[in-house]
């Protein structure tokens, strides 16, 4: 026994080290958020502002510095290395772009923007990830090479279920695919998990909550052969299912209740899109329909007003795109964010890397990027306002008949006033600009004086007209039509986009017809298209000829059930992504997904009723030696609960969870906040509803979700990072929320029984889904006794001390691995 444990430990250390070496070796070929940050925020600036003087293209290389490949940046030029990875303050590049030294200012003619400088600082701080390993990398294109034959761009194949030796083990075709790979490696799967493990695993997976003691008892009492299938069916029918799986999609869609601009304006009606997502999952809306509605729901006729409004709300997926800066003239960045999210979220491709140049790794030329850009620039996005331009507009009315006509008239009048005010302000600024030529001849001075008088009269008229327009605007804003609105999109004037040279909207190239990615399916935008093209885009995304939409979604479902995707880089199926561990299984699932009418709930059952899903998380030295990372799924991957599951479980166990659906957040009224504040909006609205209903900000994370690795609402999140930090432990010990829930938990178990042992046992049943062992009861009693002794030395009234001791014990349970992890 001791030798076995020692051997197991040695195996684990060996494979830990080997996995580090393997991941290091593979890192050069794998897409990561860090390299995507470089491609999106660093490379375009280097190309536009630096390559002229510091690249192979330079007529004369300035300072001996090359910035067009990684080793050139690290080596530096005549003054030394340009950067020190991980240390922006020690990097010459940062000193140069900050303009702190008059003798070292780069670029020399015009400083980078504040945001660009922040991006360079962040890039260096994260270690300066840079995939440009070749000195001539930026002069190469992968459009004509083997990237076109990459597996992800090929049609979904019809695959045969493999034959396996151990036929009795496989319960489903999924098991055949998994077992076939295991048998190739001459290893076998571990044993099946026990029923307690299975009910806790399935319940958290499908509804994000712990099973109740009664549910556990019912499952244990069911001795039928399909007991687990009945459990899965019950969970899929729960309204909590949509709250759990809707949250997964909101991660992908980078949902937020605020705009992301400098002031991070609140969007009171954004919640309607969030609730649309939840309800769509509960209804088991087909995934292709779900995608079409989010891209072009406003263009899809509804059978009823309710259905029409629901589809308009669905376009909140596009409207929720990030807003940047203080004005609306950064809107090209919002369109870029839209393309980035559609690319990664639906297609699993980093399409936005083709904004400034042909994609360096995947067959996506700039023309394809701007073909998509034209579709979204022909779309009218609801505008939430910014700190400079504070007037929300173009929210989509959820009305019909005379009501919608009143709204459209109101919006037209308000937009007309906006345009008039902008024009008057420009004229005012031009007249107020001082004359730089102070030395005039007599004749010139007289003419200037006459001109000044005329300009002064004109300025007075403009100021009066401005005052009148602003008064009318304020009156209009105070009396909007009382009609429900959605944060969605509509049709704009359709127009093809011009290529933005090196990603700069001020330097335009040829016009590109609106269309799709050429590598996927080969469909063309109809030449007769008179609208934005979103309806055709929605059809193309969900066309069976497009090989990625179904693959990407079934891979996401697999990831959330098995702890990792068949393709681990769930947002990147391209050449820089990680290869599929079971490509045939992925195509089998993608094909069945479409055959089953794109039903997500049916796919849950396919995966969860497999023996592979029901394996235990036990370790096996032989299997560890052959497959240290469990790439072949010979066991179940233990996982930590995500932030929402932890918070929701604490609420559920304490008995304080409000299970009603959330609505609008208690934001301050638009006029009260927008016109009285000159700082970014920041708020936290506490609620006992499920965590999906917490107010999500872009400029600042919700505190609980920040501590436990919640999703970043500024960018699509395919896989959440999982950290273990002292702050998390301190939170459970000291945070008011943890204390409040522990106190309510204590009251609940105190009311259940007067006997201490039975209280401890009930606490275990609630928190862990199992009875407490005799040793655990003994330890619990000892802990409570020690708490009582310690509390006697405090000023806490004696009658409150038993409750406080029990609450302290409950915080210990909240902090335990068994509470925080799912096996």
**Share of residues in helices:** 40-55%
Structural class given helices, strands, pairing? mainly alpha
Total helical segments = 32
> How many DSSP E strands?
8
Note the gap between the termini: 24 Å
Question: What features would you describe in this structure?
Answer:
This protein has 823 residues and is mainly alpha-helical. It contains 32 helices and eight strands. The strands form four sheets. The chain has a two-stranded antiparallel ribbon with strand order 1-4. A two-stranded antiparallel sheet has the order 2-3. It is globular and about 105 Å long. The N terminus is likely disordered.
Short description:
The chain is mainly alpha-helical.
Which key features would you list for this structure?
mainly alpha, 3% strand, two-stranded antiparallel ribbon, 823 residues
List the helices and strands and how they pair.
Elements (H helix, E strand, L loop, with lengths): L1 H25 L6 H18 L19 H6 L16 H7 L15 H12 L47 H12 L10 H13 L5 H9 L5 H10 L2 H15 L17 H12 L4 H10 L8 H10 L1 H4 L11 H17 L18 H12 L1 E3 L14 E2 L3 H32 L9 H37 L6 E2 L2 E3 L5 E4 L7 E5 L21 H8 L6 H15 L20 H13 L4 H9 L12 H6 L12 E2 L2 H12 L15 H5 L28 H5 L18 H9 L1 H17 L3 H13 L5 H18 L9 H15 L1 H4 E2 L1
Helix pairs in contact: 2-5, 7-9, 10-11, 12-13, 12-19, 15-16, 17-18, 20-21, 20-22, 24-28, 28-29, 28-31, 29-30, 30-31
